[in-house]
From TrEMBL:
Belongs to the peptidase M16 family. InterPro entries: Metalloenz_LuxS/M16, Pept_M16_N, Peptidase_M16, Peptidase_M16_C. The lineage of its organism: Bacteria, Pseudomonadati, Bacteroidota, Flavobacteriia, Flavobacteriales. Residues 1-20 form the signal peptide. It comes from Formosa agariphila (strain DSM 15362 / KCTC 12365 / LMG 23005 / KMM 3901 / M-2Alg 35-1). This is Peptidase, M16 family. Residues 190-367 form the Peptidase M16 C-terminal domain. Keywords: Hydrolase, Metalloprotease, Protease, Signal, Zinc. One of its GO terms (molecular function) is metal ion binding. GO terms for biological process: proteolysis. Transmembrane segments: none annotated. The keyword Repeat does not apply. Residues 36-175 form the Peptidase M16 N-terminal domain.
């Protein structure tokens, strides 16, 4: 009876999610190469204006890391028509909110306003692109802001440098070997001209996408976009020729130390394909299967039943050129890192040798259906998805079709991908240790 109830619930859920509203959008290019995507939804009087630039940490000089993230802050300093410090006052004063974020692959700025302020949002983003003021006082100010962020998030935060150590050991040639925060000495050594050159190279209309989503009149917004963004000159096209990584064929063993922790961690990290490839989607499912909640395999086994781990998890750090699949665990009590590694590996071997159950497979499909719908439940989320799918995936239609990739993933696919990528000779094994254990 329980099985029948589960199956019925699954069918009802899938049926509901399968009819989720399609996201309608219109896209076009300005003469200067700026790609524009419009999504009209007049159900609530809000609008998101956003610009995503195809520039991230991977585009930096190895001796000047941290530039992309630095610009996330620097381009709020002011413009020729917005006095220094006023950018972040104008938005809340007009009932809006704003934010920005940077990854290894892109930088994203957005504002959410009442819909009658859409023109203000467009003007602000056009100012950031056309008239930024990059001077020494702004650089010095944001240098201190970034240093404080690094101290809080990385240097003084427990496990704050874990991912930093994963990246620098997993990637040897590719610029994914450093993280977005970069090295502070690189920022200190940079000249004002270097910052200006970086801006001129990457913050150009033909290296960006503008998304306006929400309660808009498309004809009016198109005219505003032409007025504010049309006069911006096209930049020299960005050409990337990034080094390729040789496959990992022998397990890489490394140690790192953190003075902010008392409990060590073991990390297994595998270099995996770009998030554009289907295998990357399969790995996302494997992460959910292994550590998605208290009923997941690793949590139930190592935290619940055997009580060997204080915490355990798996995640796919998805990136444009390569990705990193990371499994980690914090031992409980007298459990050694070696014993924890052995237990984690046993669960991966099970994935490689046996098909997961039909029940678990259906549960995964339901979870990803739900995640997909939730990602498009607000105009803010839709704007981010539209920008991301265009700039990084080269397919805006994924905002509606990506769920079909997950639906196509079979139990056999999960087994095959686990066999292909999650092997000891293809990984980094990192012991992340308290500082006092350093010899």
């Amino acid at each position: 009876m329980k099985k029948r109830l589960f199956s019925l619930a699954s069918l009802l859920l899938v049926g509901h999610l399968a009819t989720a509203q399609k996201v309608e959008f219109e896209e076009y290019d300005l003469d200067n190469g700026l790609h524009v995507i419009l999504h009209q939804d007049n159900t609530a009087p809000v609008v998101t204006t956003s610009v995503m630039y195809h520039v991230g940490a991977k585009d930096e000089n190895p001796e000047r890391t941290g530039f992309a993230h630095f610009f996330e802050h620097l381009l709020f300093e002011g413009t020729e028509n917005i006095e220094r410090g006023e950018f972040m006052k104008i938005i809340p004063a007009n009932g809006g909110k704003f934010n920005a974020n940077t990854t290894n692959d892109r930088t994203y700025y957005y504002e959410v306003f009442p819909s009658n302020k859409v023109e203000l949002g467009l003007w602000l983003e056009s100012e950031r692109l056309m008239h930024p003021v990059i001077n020494q006082i702004g650089v010095d100010t944001q240098n201190e802001v970034v240093k404080e962020e690094k101290r809080m998030r990385y240097d003084n935060s427990p496990y704050g440098s874990l991912i930093i150590n994963v990246q620098k050991n997993l990637f040897i040639k590719h610029p994914y070997r450093w993280t977005t925060i970069g090295e502070m000495e690189h920022l200190d050594a940079a000249t004002l001209q270097e910052f200006k050159d970086f801006n001129k190279k990457f913050y150009i209309p033909n290296n960006a996408v503008l998304v306006v989503a929400g309660d808009i009149d498309k004809a009016q917004v198109k005219k505003m976009i032409q007025d504010y963004f049309g006069p911006i000159p096209k930049g020299t096209p960005v050409v990337r020729d990034l080094p390729q990584e040789a496959p990992i064929t022998t397990e890489i063993k490394a140690k790192a130390y953190d003075g902010n922790i008392k409990i060590p961690a073991i990390v297994e990290a595998y270099r995996t394909p770009s998030y554009k490839e289907k295998d990357s989607y399969v790995l996302n499912m494997i992460s959910e299967y292994l550590s998605g909640g208290k009923s997941s395999k690793l949590y139930k086994k190592l935290v619940d039943e055997k009580k060997m781990a204080l915490q355990v998890g798996a995640m796919s750090m998805s990136l444009e050129d390569y990705s990193a699949y990371i499994v980690y665990g914090l031992p409980l009590g007298d459990t050694s890192l070696a014993d924890l590694t052995k237990e984690i590996d046993e669960e991966i071997v099970k994935l490689q040798t046996n098909l997961i159950s039909e029940r678990d497979h259906q549960k995964l499909l339901n979870q990803f259906e739900n995640n997909f719908v939730n990602s498009n439940s607000s105009v803010e989320g839709i704007a981010s998805s539209l920008a991301t799918y265009y700039l990084l995936y080269d397919d805006v239609n994924l905002i509606n079709d990506e769920i079909n990739i997950y639906r196509s993933i079979t139990r056999e696919d999960i087994q095959a991908v686990a066999k292909k990528y999650l092997n000891p000779n293809q990984r980094l094994l990192l012991e992340y240790l308290p500082e006092e254990k350093k010899q």
